[in-house]
């Protein structure tokens, strides 16, 4: 008797992961999503998941409703006279912005994960002192995973409070690097910057993401170091001993600016 057919259905952490996968695998222009096609594929995935008794969270159902709503808005005829008075915004715009934001964060998280794997493969216990601060009372080592987790927690909290999205905001990663450099230059060694406070000061999610990437860039060029004074405590940013060497000439910021142009 033939064995039953084994069907593998990929699992996703959330609906945005699923949508991004559908878009990228089919090489669809994210700024011009064929909403009817993507909605059909999304609903097909949900149906197959139900048949395989896969548990999907409420956010998957909410996204399905959102896609159907966008699809219905795009199918409705629009009065040309109204378009001349007040052109209607593309119903897909908000979804595209959410997908791009999610993709930027996901790419940063993957980069951190890969870097962490390399570090764990290279560093050994006798070299543990490299993780510690040079103070008399050294702080705990901060892993890249800790920084990602903190950033995710702040993003989750912002969903429950108003975020002021500034129209056509042009804040960039180099802008945030200059902002952090200025803050650190005005601080003493005993007065570090708290990462959570920095994120919560930002008025938009775009600014938060740029700040997050700026911190990564400064760590990479050894301008700053991250520390915790207690297990699971707040992450703080301190000037690295190579701070002036890394940022003194402005060459590092110029190089980073080229990467993000």
Overview of the structural elements:
The protein is mainly alpha-helical and 261 residues long. The chain folds into 2 domains: 71 residues, no CATH class; 128 residues, Orthogonal Bundle (Arc Repressor Mutant, subunit A), CATH 1.10.10.580. The chain contains 11 helices and 4 strands; from the N terminus they run αααααβααβααββαα. A 4-stranded antiparallel β-sheet has the order 1-3-4-2. α5 runs parallel beside α9, α6 packs parallel to α8 and α7 crosses α9. The protein is globular.
Question: Average pLDDT value?
Answer: 75
Number of domains: 2
CATH architecture field of the largest domain: Orthogonal Bundle
| Unreliably modeled segments | 1-8, 121-140
Helix content class: 55-70%
Strand segment count = 4
Strand order of the largest sheet: 1-3-4-2
Give me the CATH fold name of the largest domain: Arc Repressor Mutant, subunit A
Q: Number of DSSP helices?
A: 11
Largest sheet: 4 strands, antiparallel
Q: Indicate the CATH class of the largest domain.
A: Mainly Alpha
Beta-strand content estimate: 5-15%
Characteristic terms for this protein:
261 residues; mainly alpha; Arc Repressor Mutant, subunit A; 4-stranded antiparallel sheet; 11 helices; 4 strands
Gist?
The chain has helices at residues 15-25, 35-51, 58-75, 80-85, 93-122, 144-158, 173-186, 195-201, 205-220, 243-247, 251-259; strands at residues 140-141, 193-194, 224-228, 235-239. By secondary structure, the chain is mainly alpha-helical.
């Amino acid at each position: 008797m033939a064995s039953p057919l084994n069907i593998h259905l990929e699992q996703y952490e959330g609906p945005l992961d699923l949508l991004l996968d559908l878009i990228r695998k089919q090489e669809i222009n994210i700024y011009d999503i064929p909403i009817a096609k993507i909605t059909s594929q999304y609903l097909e995935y949900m149906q197959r998941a139900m048949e395989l008794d896969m548990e999907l969270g409420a956010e998957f159902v909410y996204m399905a409703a959102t896609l159907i709503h966008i699809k219905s808005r795009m199918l409705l005829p629009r009065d040309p006279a109204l378009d001349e008075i007040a052109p209607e915004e593309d119903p897909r715009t908000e979804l595209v912005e959410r997908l791009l934001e999610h993709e930027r964060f996901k790419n940063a998280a993957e980069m951190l994960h890969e870097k962490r794997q390399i570090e764990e493969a290279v560093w050994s216990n006798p070299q543990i002192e490299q993780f510690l601060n040079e103070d008399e009372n050294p702080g705990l080592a901060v892993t890249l995973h800790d920084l990602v987790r903190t950033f995710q927690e702040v993003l989750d909290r912002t969903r429950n409070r108003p975020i002021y999205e500034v129209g056509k905001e042009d804040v960039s990663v180099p802008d945030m690097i200059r902002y952090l450099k200025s803050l650190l230059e005005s601080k003493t060694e005993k007065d570090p910057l708290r990462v959570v406070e920095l994120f919560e000061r930002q008025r938009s999610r775009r600014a938060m993401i740029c700040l997050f990437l700026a911190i990564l860039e400064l760590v990479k060029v050894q301008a700053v170091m991250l520390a915790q004074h207690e297990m699971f405590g707040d992450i703080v940013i301190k000037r690295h001993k190579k701070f002036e060497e890394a940022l003194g000439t402005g060459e590092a910021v110029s190089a980073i600016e080229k990467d993000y142009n």
